[in-house]
Amino acid sequence: MSVPARAQADPVTRTPAIVLENVTKQYGQGATILDNLSATIQPGEFVSIIGPSGCGKSTLLKLVAGLSPITSGKIVMERLTRVNARRITSFIFQDSTLLPWRTVRANVGLGLELEHTSKPARNEIVDAMLTLVGLADVADKYPRELSGGMKMRVSIARALASRPRVLLLDEPFAALDEITRDRMNEELLRLRGENAWTVLFVTHSVAEAVFLSNRILVLAAHPGRLAHDIIVPLPWPRTAETRDSAEFDDVVSQVSRTLREVQGK
User: Fold this and answer.
1) Along the chain (265 residues), what's the average pLDDT of each consecutive run of 10 residues?
2) CA–CA separation, 211 vs 65, rounded Å?
3) What is the edge-to-edge ordering of all strands in the sheet holding 166-170?
4) In 3D, which of 228, 230, 234, 159 has the Cα closest to residue 197?
5) Residue 50: beta bridge partners?
6) From CA 131, how far away is CA 2, in angstroms rounded?
7) For residues 262 and 246, is the Cβ–Cβ distance under 8 A?
8) Which string of b and e fits 40-60 if b means at least 16 CB within 10 Å?
9) How far out from the chain centre does Cα 264 lie?
10) Sign of the CA dihedral 107, 112, 117, 121?
11) Where are the alpha helices (DSSP H) in the chain?
């Protein structure tokens, strides 16, 4: 089985969720981090970004989130301007970035507090998010009392509390052991099945990218540029049994070969 190139455009016209047009990022007079990168992400797609270290994967997420300005090119968000892009995106980092002096409940509600959401409305949203990620029973505990996987679920609940349309994840499970990481992958897909997110997910794991994604963007480095845009042809839903299938192994092998070619190995 071969991994096809990008599928032909859907004949039914849809407004893309994210459009990257010739995006270039350079810090001052230094090296170019991203060079002339273009891609179109459709609503509801789960797109993973892989590539060698230094190719600009995390930088790309920051540009989409509006956390860093682009040097040239354009990023267009669905029905939005760059000014209010932050309001519909949530960013989940590799570190759970929880405040140790706040309870789980208070950590999840932090963004809502900053938005001056009323306490009754905030409590209702926080309770719903904790139930969604299966942590309602630890709402009054502190981060030091949680496992690594539970901390990451708190981080996800906090991100979801703002009701994002676009979810940006920068290697969120990299620090977890393999079993916990696999479970978090399955949990993430379960949550995605209950929401209409568009997801950009940075990872160094080819197997993780294949398991989670509709598409995989493979970046080359020096400077960072789009080398391959791969459709993942595995059926949905993805389950633990998916990882045991010959089809999964085949796609992982072929994407791994593509990545090695990009790295020149």
Assistant:
1) 40 73 88 93 94 92 90 81 58 84 93 87 90 89 91 87 87 85 87 85 96 96 92 93 96 95 79
2) 24
3) 89-92, 166-170, 198-202, 46-50, 215-220, 225-231
4) 159
5) 218
6) 40
7) no
8) ebbeebbbbbbbbeebbbbbb
9) 26
10) negative
11) 57-65, 104-108, 110-114, 119-132, 148-160, 178-193, 206-212, 246-263
Q: Could you count the other beta carbons within 10 Å of the beta carbon of residue 24?
A: 18
Amino acid (one-letter) located at 137: D
With the C-alpha atoms ordered 39, 66, 50, 172, is the resulting torsion angle positive or negative? Answer: negative
Residue for token digits 């042809």?
A: 233
**What is the residue type of 82?**
R
Q: Which two tokens stand for residue 264?
A: 């020149």
The phi and psi torsions of 107 (rounded to 5 degrees) equal -65, -45
Q: By the 8 A CB rule, do 87 and 66 touch?
A: no
3-state class of 78 per DSSP? coil
* Chain CA centroid to CA 38, Å: 18
- 204 three-class SS: coil
CA–CA dist 201, 171 (Å, integer): 7
DSSP, res 244: G
Q: Distance between CA atoms of 67 and 239, rounded to whole angstroms?
A: 34
Residue indicated by tokens 């379960």: 190
Burial 118-133 (b: 16+ CB within 10 A, else e): eeeebeebbeebbebb
Entry pTM? 0.85
Domains, the chain, ranges and CATH?
Answer: 18-98+164-263 (3.40.50.300)
Query: What does DSSP assign to residue 12?
Result: S
